[in-house]
Amino acid sequence: MTRLTWQFLSLLPALAWGLPNDEILNRGEEHPFIHVPLAPPDAYASGEVHGLMMQMLETSIAEIEANMDTLLLNLHAITEYTPCVGGYAGTEEGNTYSCNNLDLYSFTPHADLGSKTKMGNDIWGWTHTEEDGTREFALVGQRDGTAFVEVLPTGQVSYLGRLPTQTDNSTWRDIKVIGNYAYIGSEALGHGVQVFDLTKLLDPSLAIAPQEFSLETGVAAHYGELPLGASHNIVAHEQKNIIAAVGAIPRNHSCASGLILIDVSDPTNPTTAGCAGQDGYVHDAQCLTYYGPHIEYVGTDICYAFNEDSFTIYNITDPKDTSVISTTAYYGVSYSHQGWVVDEQEQSYLLLDDELDEVYQSGWANNSHTVTYIWDIKNLEKPVLTGHYSSPVKSIDHNLYVHNGWAYESNYGSGLRIVDVSSVAQDPTGGSFKEVAFFDVHPEDDDVGGEAKFYGSWSVYPYFPSGYIVVNSIERGLFVVKYNGSA
Ligand SMILES: *[C@@H]1O[C@H](CO)[C@@H](O)[C@H](O)[C@H]1NC(C)=O
Ligand SMILES: *[C@@H]1O[C@H](CO)[C@@H](O)[C@H](O)[C@H]1NC(C)=O
Ligand SMILES: *[C@@H]1O[C@H](CO)[C@@H](O)[C@H](O)[C@H]1NC(C)=O
Ligand SMILES: *[C@@H]1O[C@H](CO)[C@@H](O)[C@H](O)[C@H]1NC(C)=O
C-alpha cells in the first residue's frame, strides 16, 4: 500500500486500478449483470482496498477536526421538540437540518456526552422492560469510548455515563447487545471486546451524576483473545448467545480476519467458540437462525456476511465446524460493506450497501446517488441480485437496518433516509421502493445536492418500541428523531 497508490486513486477515481474508462462507465443494465469489480482480487485480499477506505475516512475526519471551530460554531444541544416544518428542523445556522416526515426531539453534541475527541461512530440500543412499561437506552460509540444515555419518553436524553476505550482512541468502535449486556469492539490495537452490564444504567443516581465506569471494575468481563485486540465490527447472534468479532487483523492469522465466534452464554466469561475464515476478511455480518424457504437449511445458524468483494453466506451451526454456503460477487461491486435481511423470519430478501460504489461511481452508482442492492436469498447456495434502489440524493451509504418493511439507512452526508421496501416480494427490482422520510444530519453539502464523502451519519438504531430513532453523527452528536407521517 504505497502513498503513490492513494494519490493516484484520489486524483483519478474512475480509473482505479487502471481499468479503462469505458469499461467502468458502460457496464449497462444487462441481466445477469456483468460483474467487474473495482479492484483486482489481490488488492482486496491484501487489505489494500480496505486500507484505502479507512484512509479516506481518517482524512475526512481530520479535515473536519481542523475546521471544527468555525464549521460547527453554533453547535449547541437542542433540548426542545423541534418539528420538521417546511422541510427544515431548527433555526440556527449550522444547527438546522433538512428533513421530511421526521421530527427532531433532541440533539446532543458528543462533547455533552463526555467525549473529549468529540467524534462519533456506531450506535445501538437497549430496551429494559419493567412492571410499568419499558425504558430505552442508547449506546453511543465515540472515538474515546461509549456514552450511555436514556432516551426519555419525551425524546430528550439523559446522559448517564461512559465506558472509556480499552486502549487507544480510534475512529472505529462497534457495539451490539444480547440480553442485558453490551459487547464493544474497536480497531484500537489491544482493545478486545468489552462486556458491559447494562442493568448498571438503572441506578437512579447516574442521571444526577454521570459516571465514568472503570475498565477494571466497571465491566462485566473483557474478551482478550482477538489476535491483535482490534476488530472492525461486532455481530450478535442473539438466539444462540454468540458474538462474532469480524475484521480482526492481521489477515494472515489463522482465522483470516473472518468471523471469530465467541460464546457469551455466560456474559461474565466469554469464550472462543470457533471461527469461519474460509472466505478471508469479513467486514460485517448478520447472524440468525434460519427459518427461510430453503428447506434443507431450516434450523441452521446462518451468517450473511459482507466480504469486501463478495456477499458470502456461512453455516455456523457448529462453531468448530463452520462452512461457506455461497460466495457471490455482483454488478458494481466495489466494497461489500454491510446488509440486513428484509424480514428476519422469512429470510427471502436482503438489502446490501456497498461503501465505495458511490465514491468510484461503479455500476448503478455511476451518478454517486446512494445505491441499495437487492438480493433474493431464497436459495442460500445461489443468491441472486434482483435489482437496486437509487436514492434521490448523492452520498455514500453506511449501515442499514430493516424494521417492519422499512429500511433505515444511515447514509453519511445525506443522513438518515427511510425507504419503504415492503414491495420487495412483488417487485424485487426495487422499482417500487419509495423514500418515506429523511433527516439530514450533515447540512454542509446540501447546497451542492450532496457529495459522496465520509462525514455525517455513521449509524442508526430503529428498534425502540417508542418509535424514537437514534442517529449517531460523526462530527456532531446524537440525534433523536421520530416519524410524523401518516403511513
Ligand atoms: C449510468 O448508467 C446508466 C445505466 O444504468 C446509463 O443510462 C447512464 O448513461 C450512465 N451514466 C453515465 C454518466 O455513465
Ligand atoms: C483520546 O483523545 C483525547 C482528546 O485528544 C485525549 O485527551 C485522551 O487522552 C485520548 N485517550 C487516549 C486513551 O489516548
Ligand atoms: C503476518 O503479516 C505480518 C505483516 O502484516 C507479518 O509481520 C507476520 O510475520 C505475518 N505472519 C505470518 C504468520 O505470516
Ligand atoms: C451446517 O453445519 C452443520 C455443522 O457442521 C452440519 O451438521 C449441517 O449439515 C450443515 N447444514 C447444511 C444444510 O449443510
UniProtKB/TrEMBL annotation:
One of its GO terms (cellular component) is extracellular region. The keyword Oxidoreductase does not apply. Transmembrane segments: none annotated. It comes from the Eukaryota. It holds the Pfam family LVIVD. Residues 1-18 form the signal peptide. InterPro entries: Choice_anch_B (IPR027589), LVIVD (IPR013211). Keywords: Signal. This is Regulatory P domain-containing protein. It comes from Favolaschia claudopus.
